[in-house]
Specification:
The structure holds 2 protein chains of 2 kinds.
Chain A: E1 6-8, E2 11-15, E3 24-30, E4 35-40, E5 43-49, E6 53-59, H1 68-78, H2 80-86, H3 88-100, H4 104-133
Chain B: E1 6-14, E2 25-32, H1 35-49, E3 57-65, E4 74-83, E5 88-97, H2 100-115, E6 122-130, H3 138-141, E7 149-151
Antiparallel strand pairs in B: 1-2, 1-3, 4-5, 4-6
The chains are: A alpha+beta, B alpha+beta.
GO molecular function (chain B): structural constituent of ribosome
Keywords (chain B): Ribonucleoprotein, Ribosomal protein
Family (chain B): Belongs to the eukaryotic ribosomal protein eL20 family.
Chain lengths: 134, 177
Amino acid sequence: MPFKRYVEIGRVALVNYGKDYGKLVVIVDVVDQNRALVDSPDMVRCQINFKRLTLTDITIDIKRTPKKKELVKAMEAADVKNKWENSSWGRKLIVKKRREALTDFDRFKLMLAKIKKASLVREELAKLKKQTKA
Amino acid sequence: MSYKFHQYQVVGRGLPSETDEHPKIYRMKLWATNEVRAKSKFWYFLRKLKKVKKSNGQMLAINEIFEKNPTTIKNYGIWLRYQSRTGYHNMYKEYRDTTLNGGIEQMYTEMGSRHRVRNHCIQIIKTATIPAKLCKRESTKQFHNSKIKFPLVSKKVRPPSRKLKTTYKASKPNLFV
């Protein structure tokens, strides 16, 4: 039952509500019990409520309120982007985004691919069944 | 972040007359929701301090004051005078925020909730940015920790926009972090 993800300076979080929805941000300082000062390479540093954040497992090594350049350097050093994109949570979000962006033609191609895959699986299954019967 | 209360610098003086060719100019920094209210407040306070009214005075300038460093967290100390049901009292309150307007707004809402004081019954005497060493209140001092670390104890999953909100859910949510 102990906690694994803490609000701390350097914790990477995902914004789950509001204008910056879906962005990965780093907690750079804590304002008070409900708000954190949050920063990301492509946005102005701002304060955001913890209710709008979901903490991730990734942390980076920074001092309290670093300069933007130091923040970017620390994010590169901790390889946040790759860690996120290879994590199961990150991968699921990428797949979700890809699915949302499908056109009708893409969905058609997807349907054909699914049918092909199912038929291949069924072929192999039939072969195995024949073997066990024989 | 849009704040309800804006900080204005209001400058005014009494009208020049034969006895006083160059009356003294007074400047006030005050908080109001808009410029009209700021001017009105200026005359209200000036009336109490000097022998001048809006009818025999003139407004010289009104400018909004914006936060210089909205990306740094500061500790604000606010001295205020408020009217309770039984009389007037002075208070000193501390808030942590990135902007002074944010701190003032926190103060107004806190006074409303803790003491049932309405906005118009509060007069702000003085505000200051307090360095961490001189803060008096434990609730602000507990965040003066460069290695601050605490868990978020309960996680409420919210729909990502108000539009996707539903009154009924199929199952109880799991609030574990």
